Amino acid sequence: LCVNKWRFMPHMKQITCQRVSYEDGIWRSLPVEPLVDVVTGAGPRVATTVQACRDAEALYIRFECEDDHVVSDFTKRDEPLYEQDVVEVFLDEEGTGRRYLELEVSPHNVVFDAVIKNEDGRIQAYTEWDAAGMETNVDVQGEKRVYVIKLPFVHFAAVPEAGTAWRVNFYRIDESREGKREFQAWSPTGAVNYHLPEHFGTLLFEG
């Protein structure tokens, strides 16, 4: 894998991140992106959408998930949330695919956060890193759950400016009442494997 060849390739999916004055209700004015089956790109059993925006201090990510059945027993930070229902964000500021942040939130607002080192598919997760100042919230709205993640820019090398582009992917794992697990992605990877950074899309920061 030659990372420079795919850092910002034209065919990559792109999600825009507008600069806003963050407040309740801001999401109604922002673009919405759907998640699909991680392998095929087909529509999922339960719908999931994602949005992104920022202010001067932080990045905000919002998932809206249809959710008629919850499988979520974990209660402690950095437990393997990915073994049950979860939403996930992978953020690669450098754009190399070799080092990125993995953030997960369970339906009960339990957090997994780690720095990932990916050396040609050999994954090391450094869970001793905690995203200090990160705020998460899960709001239950009938058979929907809305997740919001606020991640301060202090965890990155530089505060993004208009035109800055990071590599990113958004994921969801959901288990049905019948015990079948569904794996979703914003940018499909072609496999039940989220750690394929060559398939990440682009998070483009706007002014």
Task: Provide a descriptive summary of the structure in words.
This protein is an all-beta fold and 207 residues long. It is 2% helix and 44% strand. Strands 1, 2, 3, 4, 5, 6, 7, 8, 9, 10, 11, 12, 13 and 14 form a 14-stranded mixed sheet that branches. The N terminus is likely disordered.
Shape: globular
The pLDDT mean sits at 94
What Rg do the Cα atoms give? 16 Å
| Share of helical residues | under 10%
Q: What is the distance, rounded to the nearest whole angstrom, between the alpha carbons of the first and last residues?
A: 33 Å
Based on the model shown, name its key terms.
14-stranded mixed beta sheet; 207 residues; mainly beta; 1 helix; disordered N terminus
